[in-house]
Every structure is written in C-alpha cells, then in structure tokens.
Amino acid sequence: MARFTSLLAALATLATSVTSKKVFIENDGLAALQLLIPLYAGYDVVGLSMSFGSASSVDALGVAYDILSEYNLTSCIPLYLGAEQPLLQTNDTFQLHNTLFGAPVWEGAYASTYEDSYSWEDLEYDDATPGAIAMIEAVKKYKDTDPVTIYAAGMMTTVAQALSIYPQLAEEAAGLYVMGGYIDNQYAQATGSSIEVDINTDINLIQDPEAAQITLTAPWKKLVIGGNVTNYLVPSQPLYDRLIHKAGGLDKIDGSEYFAAIQDIVYSGNYSQNNEQQTLPFWDEVVSSFMVYPDIITDSIDVQCAVDTSFYSPFYGNLRIWGEEFAPTSGVRTGNATLINSIKDDDFYDLMVDVLFTNWTDYCATGSFASLEGY
To answer: Which element (helix H / strand E) includes 322?
Structure first.
C-alpha cells in the first residue's frame, strides 16, 4: 500500500506541475469520490452538469451542491443544470414498457413513490447556462490546448443534446467515459436477489435509450465503457474496518462533518440498519479511477457497440456489442468502444482511502491539497 500511495503522490505532483488535464462530469447525482479522484490525479474539473435520471433534477443538483460545499469547492468548480427529461421517453412510456417486458428494481425519479428531497431556492448554480451548452463551451475552449474528457455517469441525454447542437463535440473532446453498459447479465437478472437484479440493470441507458444510442455511436477519439467491472468493486467489512481504524474510531467519523463521504460508505454497511438495497457498488468511483489512472486497468476489449432503440423489444435500452468483423455494416449505426473488464482491485481501494483522507479546503485558493493532519 505504501508504495502505491507514494506513486499516487508523485503522479499528483507531476500532474499539477504541468498543464492539468480537463474533465467535464455529467451525472444524475454525484458521488464525492467521482469528483475528488480526478482532482487528486491533477485533473481540472471544468464543469459539473447534473440531470434527471436516478434522481430528479433538483435532487441531482442538490447532492452535487452539498458535495462542493462540504469540500469548499464551490468557487472553482462550476455547477450546471443538465437535461430535465429524456429525449423521447416519458414516465408513461417507461411504465408501459415495464408492463410489457418487466420492470427494473430501481426506477429512479420515475418511481411512483419518488419525492424530491431538495428545493430549488436552496441551491446555488449557474442557472444562465444549460449543462449541454456549458459542455460545448468547455470543449471548444480547450480543444487546441488541452482537450476535455467528458465523463457521463447518468443518462446520456445532456451529451446527446450537446452533440445535436454541436456535432463537432465528439471530435474535439479528448474522449468520453461512460458508467454503464453492462453485458451478459440476463442470468443474474433472472436468478439473483433484488440487489443483484438491480446492479445488473442498465438504468442509465434504459431511461433514455435514444440519447444513449446517439452518444455511444458518435465519432469520439476515445470511448471507454465501464461495463460489468463497475459492479465488482463493492463495500466490504475489511474496507469499513480500515476506514474506521484510520479515522481513529467511529466517534471520530461521527464527530466530523469533513468525513461525510466516509460516513456514507461506513453506514451503508454493517454499522447501520440500512437494508441490502443501499449497499451498492462503487459505480461512478471505479470509472473515475481508471479514467485518471489507466495503469490500474488489467483487461479490456475493443468492440463495436449500439443501443437497442426498438420500443417493442425486451432489450430496449440495452447495450449490444460485436467484434469488429461481425458488426453490422448497414441498418444499425455502431460506435467504436473499449470495454473495461477488470482493474487492480487493491489499488482502487488504496486510492479510495488516500482520497478520502485528503484535505481539500484550500484547493480553490491554492490549487493544491494535502493529507488530513493526523491521518
């Protein structure tokens, strides 16, 4: 672990000594580590756009605003409102398809029981610039000097909007990283528990299949899909124990607002009364980690990909992949993608711990960060 920690510190120092790489994050919510891992690696997060999907628009924005506030990052990381609805899908069509072909465990903001947790008047964000426009402007600004990587971890709607307004986006960005794109998961969906069915359901694509197809078949310089690997990295008792030990006990975690992200992890597990539905994989965090530290990738495959956009199909909104020589040559538009199959698990957990115990309070003022004192 010490060797990996030293390597990360050296990489972060090197990255901040040269022109920072740029990333624009689009999501339907935000995990703290999804944002902090790129910063730790020396990336410049040029924008956050939060959209409808697994959460309502106001809740997605609210969660992101809270994270920026907790880490004193509101002054240097702009926050935007992305797409507030899918391109074609509505709650009615979503529920109709569920009736015809089966409903997912998690329906996100389309669930009949969903209620907003935030109010618009409590949030601060750039309400003059839509997320798609902010994405375009960031890509155009840095295209000749330091091209922006786009990381889409929710529905693909905002990225599809940006592509429809500015088709050059795909060619001028450094690439696109996607959380989602599960494959070969029918057996798990048929035989697993509710949590196993949930984590093998591609809700990011299912909620807006048309946007996903537009986005994943655009001519990106690089398209990387997290796929199944994002389901394998999960909270565990050893991770809880490690975090609690490093913090100096549960009382230290409870007593510090700065440990909110650690609380979220620890209290999703054996130290809470939460049910299994809330103990979820580190989806967005895993993609952030291999996006900025590609050396942790141990296996990947290049494929042709498309999303099923036939409404009267049980696979509406599911990713399809082909080897290059077997991909459709007409009729179905496909994109070139790299699917990540596995990463160095221990390195990912080491990175998580290092980032969680990092002090970000002076980052906006100085562009630097340090280990939390005493840890």
So the answer is: strand 319-322
The string of DSSP letters for 347-366 reads: HHHHHHHHHHTEE-TTHHHH
Tracing tokens 């990387």 back to the chain, one arrives at 224
- Burial (0-12, 13-18, 19+ Cβ within 10 Å), 335: buried
CA 100 to chain CA centroid, nearest Å:
30
The torsion angles phi and psi of 109, rounded to 5 degrees, stand at -70, -5
Helix ranges (H only) for 41-143 are 57-70, 91-101, 131-142
Distance from first CA to last CA of the chain, Å, rounded? 15
Give the separation between CA 68 and CA 77, rounded to whole angstroms: 8
Contact in structure between 214 and 156 (CB atoms under 8 Å): yes
Look at residue 13 and tell me whether its pLDDT is greater than 50. no
**For residue range 64-83, what is the model confidence (pLDDT) as tens digits?**
999 999 999 999 999 999 99
Contact between 320 and 227 (Cβ < 8 Å):
no
Residue-wise pLDDT for 161-181, tens only, equals: 999 999 999 999 999 999 987
Fold of the CATH domain 2-234+280-371: Inosine-uridine Nucleoside N-ribohydrolase; Chain A (3.90.245)
Predicted TM-score of the model (pTM): 0.89
SS3 of residue 337 by DSSP: strand
The single-letter DSSP state of residue 129 is S
Burial class from Cβ neighbours inside 10 Å (0-12, 13-18, 19+) for residue 129 reads middle
Burial of 74 (0-12, 13-18, 19+ CB in 10 A): middle
What is the band of 266 on the pLDDT scale with cuts at 50, 70, 90? confident
Q: Which of 22, 30, 67 is nearest to 47 (CA)?
A: 22
Residue with tokens 């002054």: 75
For residue 258, pLDDT beyond 90: no
Do 338 and 300 touch, CB atoms closer than 8 A?
yes
48 strand-pairing partners? 25, 79
Answer yes or no: is pLDDT of 315 > 90.
no
Q: Which residues of 240-276 are buried (b: 16+ CB within 10 A; e: fewer)?
A: bebbbeebeeeeebeeeebbebbbebbbbbebeeeee
